[in-house]
Specification:
CATH superfamily of the largest domain: Periplasmic binding protein-like II
Order of helices and strands: HEEEHEHEHEEEHEHEHEEHH
Number of strands: 12
Number of helices: 9
CATH class of the largest domain: Alpha Beta
CATH architecture of the largest domain: 3-Layer(aba) Sandwich
Largest sheet: 5 strands, mixed
Structural class: alpha/beta
Number of domains: 2
Radius of gyration: 19 Å
CATH topology of the largest domain: D-Maltodextrin-Binding Protein, domain 2
Distance between the termini: 22 Å
Strand content: 15-25%
Helix content: 25-40%
């Protein structure tokens, strides 16, 4: 993805506030809370008092785990939330991505992290949160293919992507579903597939760490055959349906961080477009 110029509509005051706030952010997940710390909001019921427990996995540049330290886009957001609420951030990575949502449902963790989108299916089992940032999808290829140019090419996607059913119907036998990133990027590098469709953020990070010669990421544009391409997914931090109070406070904190420019500074710090912080009205894919 190319980085857009940062929006100039925010005032200087918001930039100063964000910069000051982030100075103690980063990956300090287990730092000691100052004794004189006063939380921004009183209601913040968590599984363990004084601790925000996040169930997550390594998914650079969104969640980067180093022991009990969490960094990356979402790591920085959650560390800032913990700082504002005077709690410590604890990482639970047992079970990886597949265990994140169940860990919240069973009361082992407060929230999941790692690009959890607001979806209609997820809304049935979780209390969705305010959107924190956008996660656009992209076409990864060595030929500079766009979404409109996919027919006639062998295209892959990892299992679980919301757009898989639409791509399968549109592309037929030319569409292949993979079980993991290693396999799909390996086949792209070896020419077994011409393109793959994935979240642009993770695809860009993947190619930076494990380059495929000539590969580039081109964000999808709305096309009739794939309704899921009509809008970018909104990443959120859902909570248990039994913990509405925590959900409401997290919503307020995310909105505060949107308005004071903190989230924009975080996403650009991790080389994402500033536009990914412009979430718009909440929706569910």
């Amino acid at each position: 993805m190319t980085r857009n110029a940062k929006n100039l509509g925010r005032g200087l005051l918001l930039t100063v506030i964000a910069a000051t706030s982030l100075s103690a952010c980063g990956a300090s997940g287990s730092s000691t809370v100052p004794e004189d710390c006063t939380p921004v909001y009183e209601e913040f019921p968590t599984v363990a008092e004084g601790t925000l427990t996040v169930a997550t996995y390594d998914f650079s540049p969104l969640t980067i785990i180093d022991g009990n330290e969490l960094s990356g886009v979402e790591g920085d957001i959650l560390n800032e939330i913990s700082k504002r609420q005077c709690v410590t951030l604890t990482v639970d990575s047992a079970g990886g991505a597949n265990a994140a949502i169940p860990s919240v449902q069973t009361g082992r963790a407060d929230i999941p992290a790692g690009s959890w989108l607001r979806t209609q299916e997820r809304e049935k089992i979780m209390r969705l949160g305010a959107p924190a940032y956008l996660s656009p999808n992209g076409v990864v290829s060595t030929k500079g293919l766009t979404a409109e140019e996919l027919p006639g090419h062998k295209v892959g996607s990892v299992a679980g992507n919301l757009f898989n059913a639409s791509l399968a119907e549109w592309l037929g036998n030319d569409f292949v579903i993979y079980q993991d990133d290693e396999s799909i990027y390996g086949d792209l590098a070896n020419g077994r597939i011409d393109a793959l469709v994935a979240a642009s953020i993770s695809a860009t990070a993947r190619l930076e760490d494990n380059p495929v010669e000539g590969a580039q990421v081109i964000d999808v544009t709305p096309i009739e055959q794939v309704p899921e391409f009509a809008k970018s997914g909104q990443v959120n931090f859902p909570v248990s349906k039994d913990n509405e109070a925590l959900g409401q406070t997290l919503d307020k904190l995310i909105i505060d961080m949107q308005e004071d420019g903190t989230i924009e500074q975080i996403v650009t710090k991790w080389n994402l477009d500033a536009s990914t912080a412009d979430v718009g009205e909440p929706n569910a894919l």
